[in-house]
Amino acid sequence: MRSINEALASIIGADRVASDADALNARRYDQWAVKHLRDWRGEAVPAPGCVVRPQSVEDVQKVVKLAAEKRLPLIPYGLGSGVCGGIEPSPQAILLDMSGMKRVRYIHGDDLLASFDAGLNGMEAEETVAAHGLTIGHWPQSIAISSVGGWVATRASGQFSTAYGNIEDIIHSIEAVLPNGELVTLGKAVRAAAGPDLRHLLMGAEGTMGVITGVTFSLRAKAPHRDYSIFYADDMCAGFEAQRQIVRADWRPPVMRQYDGREVRRLFRDHARDGKTMLLMVHEGPKARVDAELAAMHEICVAAGLEAGNPDAAKQWIERRNHVPSWRDMFDRGYVADTVEISGHWSEIGAIYDDSIAALNEIPGVINASAHSSHVYRSGINLYFSFAATFEDSAKMEPAYFACWRAIMEATAKHGGGVAHHHGAGRLRKPFLHHDLGDNGVALLRQLKHCLDPQGIMNPGNLLPDA
Question: Can you give the pTM of this predicted structure?
Fold first, then answer.
């Protein structure tokens, strides 16, 4: 790669090209548990051939054009918060570290628009608009370690999505460099009928269709009032039914989360009630609307057979919601674990939950199989499964990890659910993508990839199922 490094240095500056061991090793993987496990076990995890840190859109264009000319793999890298194996560099690859592109481009208070470089940290973007009394309204658990471009690339969802929407509902426009080096801005009007919505070519593409360089979001006024409610149900299906009735009645509490009994005991020990499931809600907006919503939630939930609980449990969640242990801490304690998010229609979700939990509990070594819901829609709901397995022999961890994932994917697909809700697909989900897209849909995705990237240089091996 020496000649490539020299060529890159000549077009964007030597200070923006790194090939030292520290820079390369720091970009070998993102937050996918499997790569951390392999590294922890002392297995070789390949590094990229070089790391390039563009400072401008023009830098990105120059790098992409060089990669296309030399037919070199090019891997866009935000802040490394992905959890599905979207990053897997090779010694022949150029890793495009977007963290240097972190400008706030503009904030238009009247139009409720804010535009950022794609590499800007999500929390920094939120704090910038909050100073104007506004909010992006997108609160993924990874907000403090993820980039705004990464939100788009993985088609992310935030914890307040039931009222504020997912990333596709918040995006106004996307700026991107295509695999041939050309620059496009997709999205202009407040709403358009100017052909297919081309923004969706980049949303969820995980770096396979181009490099996202800028994102403009449609903002909201910061909520003036917040309150909380807690209810308990005898089982998950009773809680699902209460949530279905809430959204059917056209209420949209920003946060609606339902924990099964195992997760209540683990996460809300002081608030556990005899193995019951917990429905946690956060309510935001003008005080009159919040008060009306609280009254309506109580009426609907009690009529559905739920019991009211102490709202302090919801306040506890707000304070602790983004605190998670490191992978290596769990490995050191002898555990391998992960979370898996899926979705299903109301008519499917109970069976998906039951079959997934049962399948997980049949896998040797599994000591925890649990779930909660965290995003609610008119036609259905998502589930966020958690599993943990323990072994004295660490060589058994990775096979068990993949067995747990497969169990959830297969149970979800069996009942017609969607196998990916908000973390993207990466290399982890791509073998199961046909369940969501169908064989013809996968073929169409391949055609789109080939049209945009005929040389296959953009993040090769990611997202698309192996042929």
Answer: 0.96
